[in-house]
Amino acid sequence: MFEGREIVIATMHKKEEVIAPFFEQELGMTCKVPSNFDSDVFGTFTQDIPRLDSPLDTLRKKAVLGMQKASTDLVVASEGSFGPHPSLFFVPAADEMLIFIDRKNDLEILAREVSTETNFSSAEVDTEEALLKFAEQSLFPSHALILSNPIENCTNPIEKPFFFKGITSREELIDIYRDLRKKAKTVHVQTDMRAMYNPTRMKTIAKACHKLIRNIVSQCPSCVTPGYNVTDVLDGLPCSSCGRPTKSTLAHQYVCRRCGHKELKYFPNIKIEEDPTFCDYCNP
Question: Which spans in 139-244 are helix H?
Answer without folding.
Answer: 170-181, 199-217
